């Protein structure tokens, strides 16, 4: 762990000299709107929503591992604030489990036996199998479905939502744009249902959050009042929220870290150690920063030091399904699709698909060589490159071509 922290600091100090997504040390955290709740914020938000508008109805779209963990938090939190209606609807993609409908099981046992077994959901969380019925009267929509299903879940909602509905996406990944390029999932949702969409990303493995083990998260939201409302809805004493205004960078971090975690899994599968994995994490972070620099100019370096950045990268490269499946991929020689079916019990993998989406755009723009780690990970997933190619990739990574003289010159020039 010390190694990773050192690697991150080295990265920061180097990046502050070399990268265009740059800032001074004192500016780290500069995109924050606010972090810990203060009584003042809590009172003012409560007043704003109780005095001026009826309680907000909340709907969670998705009920997988993360969707269920967040339902546990939101179901409890709505009862603590007058600004929220006490019932939370949760859209559940209907499945039969031992001859019974999953929605019926959730509504009678208050447990999502398939995706979050062993954890009780609050009884005010109501499972609804019809997406329109779940969402049509909601004031706040929480999108938490695997990114592969966003279109089919959102399409029935187009033109059917209340006028002032707002949304927040917890979804990691991109969508392929017709005619080329990629689209952020929050932008896709906005296109499909025409509501403002914030994002929440962080070092939040669902099982640990459901066990109420302490962690932090990052909300990207440009509207301070809405940001406060999300914080009240989602923050607990074990799940701490920081709200920043650098929305795109928060979302890009959440998507790209799953590619890096896939690379970390390859390293584990090849039998390398923590030093090697730290190199993958560091180079992965450099490519994430570069990606924002190239495709989302104006992103802030400080965002990479929030929970959505370096913290999520570390947790996903050590825990999580992408790393686990990638390790098995190297050890068994099976395909990603086979392993997803065998190992995940209906849960969806994000890393290899995000690598494919990113590669689609990089290839089109002739930029594969500028992102060699993302490119190698994608090629390994497709079996176009044997897994040991990861080591050649990191050995020859352009980040190692930055010479002392160049660094020294940039440092002198930046002072
Ligand atoms: N699990 C985590 O630890 C975690 C943490 C942070 C963010 N996320 C992100 O949250 C998002 C949701 O992940 P998750 O872990 O809740 O899901 P999951 O992979 O655990 O579950 C899959 C979900 O997809 C649904 N589904 C299956 N087929 C479907 C279909 N045809 N149409 C619609 N829905 C269908 C299932 O009902 C289930 O709810 C992903 O983008 C993921 O990256 C996950």
TrEMBL record:
Residues 246-390 form the Glycerol-3-phosphate dehydrogenase NAD-dependent C-terminal domain. Gene3D superfamilies: N-(1-d-carboxylethyl)-l-norvaline Dehydrogenase, domain 2, NAD(P)-binding Rossmann-like Domain. One of its GO terms (cellular component) is cytosol. Coiled coil: none annotated. It comes from the Eukaryota. Residues 57-225 form the Glycerol-3-phosphate dehydrogenase NAD-dependent N-terminal domain. One of its GO terms (biological process) is glycerol-3-phosphate catabolic process. Its main location: cytoplasm. PANTHER family: GLYCEROL-3-PHOSPHATE DEHYDROGENASE, GLYCEROL-3-PHOSPHATE DEHYDROGENASE [NAD(+)]-RELATED. NCBIfam families: glycerol3P_DH (TIGR03376). This is Glycerol-3-phosphate dehydrogenase [NAD(+)].
